[in-house]
What we know:
The protein is mainly alpha-helical and 86 residues long. It has helices spanning 19-29, 34-41, 45-71.
Amino acid sequence: MRSDRRMSLPPSDTPGLTAAETRVVVLANANMSNAEIATALNIKDRSVKEYMQRARQKYRDHCNLLALEKESGGAPYLRPGPLRPK
């Protein structure tokens, strides 16, 4: 198994994962291959790859947000929106 497949946070700690993404991540963290995950969940190998890609992106976004909050002294980071004319 490649080490880049693993996520350090459990899926429940990564907000925004769908139920399908969570199932795939849990099985990947149990050292199952994409083929084994696909067989266990009765889905295609390509679907496993897509779920993992989406889960990784959500995980990266979550970690980036936590880093921004830490830099700001713990205040929640609010993304700047478009300026509204007065």
